[in-house]
Amino acid sequence: MDIKTKINTSWDNWKHFLGQAVEFAEELGISRERIVSLAKQAGDVLAENVQPANPEQKALKELWSVADQQERQVLAGLMTKLSKQERSSGSMF
Fold it and tell me: Among 10, 51, 59, 82, which is most exposed with the fewest C-beta within 10 angstroms?
């Protein structure tokens, strides 16, 4: 399954995929600040190139489109935090 297929999926699958990426980056010793910065860069690319696959992604894309750079950094931080919480809570995966 390619990355575009993984991100164009259900909200829960998307959070799981992002959580795996965050966990992997942490295992490599990448700082939280750098992870959030990378998540923001990924968010910029996704917002410009990928159509939302579900209502949650659509809402996130709409928020991204009206946010300034600092607000996008906050959104990226919240998404990484949410995805990490989902992974640690032992949700559906």
Answer: 51
